[in-house]
Amino acid sequence: MKNIKPKLIALFKEGYCTPQIARIAREINEPSATIHYNIKKMEKEDAIRTYKAVFDYKKIGEGFCVYILLKLTAEAGANPDMIANELARNKAIESVDLLAGEMDVIMKVRAKDQDEFYELLRSLLARKEIERSTSMISLRQVKSEFVLL
Amino acid sequence: MKNIKPKLIALFKEGYCTPQIARIAREINEPSATIHYNIKKMEKEDAIRTYKAVFDYKKIGEGFCVYILLKLTAEAGANPDMIANELARNKAIESVDLLAGEMDVIMKVRAKDQDEFYELLRSLLARKEIERSTSMISLRQVKSEFVLL
DNA sequence: TTAGATAACTGAACATTAATCAAATCTTAG
DNA sequence: CTAAGATTTGATTAATGTTCAGTTATCTAA
């Protein structure tokens, strides 16, 4: 047994998919060469970043989902981009945004369960630039990445 | 001019993409029939929900991104699923989660600009089940849908 | 308004890829 | 050990994406 599944999950999280030109052409009743032309144009303009899979995260062992708000120290808060970029590299983090208002950063993280989340949180909050944080645990994911679950 | 672009955006937000089996096979050095078998298995198990595009949302006129927290009334809070499902139907809403703790719902919405967001917010908050809300405006989207921006 | 230039569209030929299938191999439970 | 089921794989077939040249539409400047 080759255990292909985790490799597929890793690849599909960020890409390795492609548009179904023929199906779209049928759906909106246009020639497939026209669809092809328009898609390539959007790709060239960088309006499309990638094509990827959306998972049932429970079924791939990432069912525990939490939103974390961060308040940075005064110094770090003046230049939050660097910290945000470093956080964003973490594979468990689905999204990172810099915020206006009371808190500086919001991120959405996925883990297997509470225990795995706790370890993740500990490692994330180990940075000295973080003054405090609040976690909001998702009890039910109704929609994610524009897809109803 | 046929204005295909908005149709493509609508289709790509939720699907109309497919895995690149041959490319994955090359990447991880396995026969493409094996990759095909494993992907179909994951699809059958419903571990994969869909294949979709990720956009540079600024470039498709959805650059204004906000997280909204909702506190429901006591009655509605006892059964928040129905309200969450209704909210999730809105095309401008990227994600909806039910929360543990102080607030009941968090959602991520995308609009063209502040004006469009204001109209959206007004329509969303018109529901009598919502006791109060807080909006957190994203100043910079560092990562979204597992994709670095 | 018009001519020229550029962008968008499209059918047809071609290249690549996905899907299928049958045989071989591996895994598991009794 | 053995039988049943799951996984892997090469080879064939079906379907799809890509290219290109010719057409049509749109835009720009005189």
Describe what you observe in this structure.
2 copies of one chain form a homodimer. The first copy, chain A, is of the alpha+beta class and 149 residues long. Chain A folds into 2 domains: 5-44, no CATH class; 57-148, 2-Layer Sandwich (Alpha-Beta Plaits), CATH 3.30.70.920. Helix content of chain A is 37%, strand content 34%. Chain A has helices at residues 5-14, 21-28, 32-44, 74-77, 81-88, 114-125, and strands at 17-19, 48-55, 64-72, 93-99, 105-111, 130-144, 147-148. Chain A has a 5-stranded antiparallel β-sheet. In chain A, a hairpin with a 5-residue loop joins strand 4 and strand 5 (105-111). In chain A, 37% of the residues are buried. The interface between A and B is large, with 72 and 72 residues. Strand 4 (93-99) of chain A pairs antiparallel with strand 6 of chain B, so a sheet runs across the interface. The first copy, chain A, binds a DNA duplex (30 and 30 nucleotides) through residues 1-2, 18-23, 30-34, 36-38, 40-41.
